[in-house]
Amino acid sequence: MNIPVDNKIRIAGGGIAGLSTAIYLQSKNNPTVVYEKELKIGQSRHGDFEGLENWIFNDRIHSSFKNIGFDFNKIQSTPISSFYVHTTHQNPLHVKSKIPFFFLVSRGSKSIDLDHQLFLQCKKAGVEFRFGSKTPSTCDVIATGTRKASAYIQGINFNTDLKNQVHLLLGKKFAPKGYAYLIIQNGHGTIASAFKKTKNTQERFLENCIEYFKSKNINFSEAKKFSSRGSFSLPFGQMNLPILVGEAGGFQDYLFGF
């Protein structure tokens, strides 16, 4: 990679992929600066729950984070070793493991959110940030998310007095070529449908999920809607500058949970 005149590697985008790239390069003595269009890291997220999967890494999740440059022990998370799998034609299946399947985190700019905690670790490591300004055309790494959507997420955040629980929903009624989920943690919940782009994208997949759980006496109060999109097809070709990382390159973010 060609280092700019000021000896700093420029990264466009302060999402998880951009932060992961920045702290890794910084740990290898390569000064980095991250350009983020929002006024702070995580501002485009909504406080929704996601899961960092433990089984996708070669090592335990703590070691994998350490290899990138992050200290997982400084990230507020909850290990999940038990959840329920639902389909339209079978009774729910209870899945359990002695080792956590994944770790729950919240996404956003608050002090308890993954994005903000990763940002603090990047700052401590010496990564520089430029907020609310136009990204230079000379960036070496592009981590600005997908430009062409092939998958969508629709969901709501809500408050509840129900006990902590996690559910996975499978089937085209809930999320064609994808999955849906319900997560309740400490009085707050997220229900969402993550589905591939189809000819029938106008169908009410999220509403189907909500109605399903309402039939099981789970209600959703003070709900706030959110939505997002992504692209998960792998690119091919040479790794020319600028380097595309995360969803900008067709990959899921390095630390993206699902």
Q: How would you sum up this structure, described in words?
A:
The chain is of the alpha/beta class. It folds into two domains: 9-48 and 59-77 and 108-146 and 233-249, 3-Layer(bba) Sandwich (FAD/NAD(P)-binding domain), CATH 3.50.50.60; 151-230. The chain has four helices and 15 strands. Strands 6-5-11-12-13-10-14 form a seven-stranded mixed β-sheet, with helices on one face. A five-stranded parallel β-sheet has the order 8-2-1-9-15, with helices on one face. The protein has a three-stranded antiparallel β-sheet with strand order 3-7-4, with no helix packed on it. Mean pLDDT is 87; it is low at 1-5 and 253-258.
User: What is the overall shape?
Assistant: globular
The CATH class assignment of the largest domain is Alpha Beta
Neighbour order of strands in the largest sheet: 6-5-11-12-13-10-14
Helical content class = 10-25%
Query: Mind summarizing the main beta sheet?
Result: 7 strands, mixed
Note the gap between the termini: 30 Å
| Proportion of residues in β-strands | 25-35%
Mean pLDDT, nearest integer?
87
What's the helix-strand series? Answer: EHEEHEEEEHEEEEEEHEE
Supply the number of structural domains. 2
Segments where pLDDT lies below 50 for 5+ residues? Answer: 1-5, 253-258
In CATH, the homologous superfamily of the largest domain goes by the name FAD/NAD(P)-binding domain
Gyration radius (Cα, Å) is: 19 Å
Structural class call reads alpha/beta
- As for the CATH topology of the largest domain, it is FAD/NAD(P)-binding domain
